[in-house]
Amino acid sequence: MPIYQKFSDDNKQQTINYAEDKLKRQKEQENIINFRNSLIPYKQATEQALSAGLGEGYTDNIETCTVYWDKQVNYDIGIPIKGDSMEPEFHYGQTALIKYQSSPDYDGQVCAVDNVSMGNAFIKCVTVEEDGLLLQSLNIEEDQNGERKFPDIKLYWDDNPRIIGKVVAVFTPIEINNIFKKKLGLLRVP
To answer: Residue 136 in contact with residue 154, Cβ under 8 Å?
Structure first.
């Protein structure tokens, strides 16, 4: 006679409850492991931003933090976006993944640009012209006077602009709280 059949009805129910609880915990652990394996860490600049507007500060001294996304992309640096001039494609708070290169692949390509003389950086559609770089916004909103809220920006070669690189992807980082980080093994506890 199998051991289970030797139990009283009460002990049989307790055994079933215990087994169901163990199975539930096992599935939760498998889900955590699967989720952890699906998260890709990205290095994002912490004291930098790309303006989707009138310009944000940018320097070559880059400190980073780690943000997470569930897609794998070949990139060099992630930089947060501030502003709404590149909506509807790019939104405030998203991370732009940049692949370093000194010129766009084609006119109108979305790139990160550093206006070295002014200390501003932008995410814009870039066209290389004879006298400099033309930066254009995707957002065509108008103000109350009928003027474009985000007019084109011209950076002349005399101002020493440089293209940081092309935007290869943009995403909203997956938020992971510390309790979940601990379960995933991403948080070091002393």
So the answer is: no
Does 187 fall in a domain?
A: no
Residue from 114, 109, 59 nearest 86 by CA: 109
With tokens 């915990």, the residue in question is 25
Number of domains in the chain: 2
Q: Are residues 29 and 48 in the same domain?
A: no
SS3 102: coil
Residues 105-128 pLDDT 10s: 999 999 999 887 888 888 999 999
- The reply to whether the predicted model has a pTM over 0.85 is no
End-to-end CA distance of the chain: 51
Domain containing 117 equals 40-171
Q: Distances from the Cα of 145 to the Cαs of 70, 85, 142, 149, 150, in angstroms?
A: 43, 18, 8, 10, 13
Could you please report the per-residue DSSP string of 121-156? Answer: EEEEEEEEETTEEEEE-S---B-TTS-BSS--EEEE
One domain, residues 120 and 166: yes
